[in-house]
Amino acid sequence: xxxxxxxxxxxxxxxxxxxxxxxxxxxxxxxxxxxxxxxxxxxxxxxxxxxxxxxxxxxxxxxxxxxxxxxxxxxxxxxxxxxxxxxxxxxxxxxxxxxxxxxxxxxxxxxxxxxxxxxxxxxxxxxxxxxxxxxxxxxxxxxxxxxxxxxxxxxxxxxxxxxx
Length: 164
Known about the structure:
Elements: H1 4-33, H2 37-63, H3 83-110, H4 114-144, H5 148-158
Helix pairs in contact: 1-2, 1-3, 2-5, 3-4, 4-5
């Protein structure tokens, strides 16, 4: 049986993952409105990953005898000044996710909940990749500066994510 502290913290993380997914959907919509279909695609794939993360935690909590408590999803920001601003917002979101995962991992260690630590190790590793991917896009946008051609090349590159 899972402790109530861990159950509460995992529920918080599940709800964070759903909110993150919804925010990525809003960012995808913003990119689509700017005719940047590649960026929109990248965000749509990212949105799906966040839903997968929520489902993984959902299943883990149920398997451990815990109770999932879903909350309302808040309205995400839907307007950005530039592609760079939108990607910077995504990076902040990933950094917040990393902080929450680390806090949850610390709690699991404190509670000596080895099963939760094992589950969360996957998320710890995943967040390294998540932050790197978004940081790389942001770095490319920073290098591109005001170059519309480079922005379009990056858009074309991001359109390939999730496609075979």
